[in-house]
Amino acid sequence: MSTQSEVEFQPWVKSFDATGATDAVVIFPHAGGAAAAYRTLAKTLSERGVTAFIVQYPQRADRLAHPAVDSIDALARQLFDAGDWGRVGALSLFGHCMGAVVAFEFARLAEERGVAVRRLWASAGQAPATVPEVLPLPSTDADVMADMVDLGGTDPRLLEDEDFAELLMMAVKSDYRALSGYTCVPGARIRADIHAIGGTRDHRIRPHWLENWASHTTGRFTLSHFDGGHFYLNDHLDAVTELVIRR
């Protein structure tokens, strides 16, 4: 097993190495989310002996000038091609919200190219086959901003900052355009186990959207819940880390 220091990755793949680790987790942010939002999760995983990576999507942070991708498939290919994932250890994926769908397509691509994925953690994200149920997604500035407020997870004071709001809007619109064109291949499954996780008070994710992840794996499926809303993760970081490590 090699760490990022031994495997060349694009500079926008953030790594948190754990000495002597044989397992690695790749974290996929939510729509509009930057890698920095998952730094604490990645650091906690690395402190528990698992090497963690966070991928950065275009149109934000250190990829601000990178052109937006036009589809989830294209984004997954771009992230997979960012480095030699087959050399970082036993691979698991953790995707939150839209990131769960990106992680699923990443897993499909990895398996096609001979890179084994052991587990996919689908956090507060709907199963790929159910994505059309939420279309069309907001597209105007006013509707996107209202959606961000409803979603939560962003300090309202930051949303009042015009410069921050403008950058966030650009990232969210980019991700929503990619997600709007997403269709899952009928019967698409991965060999990796899928573990869905949701918040008990998440008004954005319908129960069957989590349950339907079972139809996308030929392996094992589990469903867990934590008290909280769409960003339950912020309040249960240690417990989620323990769940991921224990599996």
TrEMBL record:
Keywords: Virulence. InterPro entries: AB_hydrolase_fold, TEII, Thioesterase. The keyword Coiled coil does not apply. Residues 25-244 form the Thioesterase domain. It catalyses: a fatty acyl-CoA + H2O = a fatty acid + CoA + H(+). Belongs to the thioesterase family. PANTHER family: S-ACYL FATTY ACID SYNTHASE THIOESTERASE, MEDIUM CHAIN, THIOESTERASE. This is Thioesterase TesA. It comes from [Mycobacterium] wendilense.
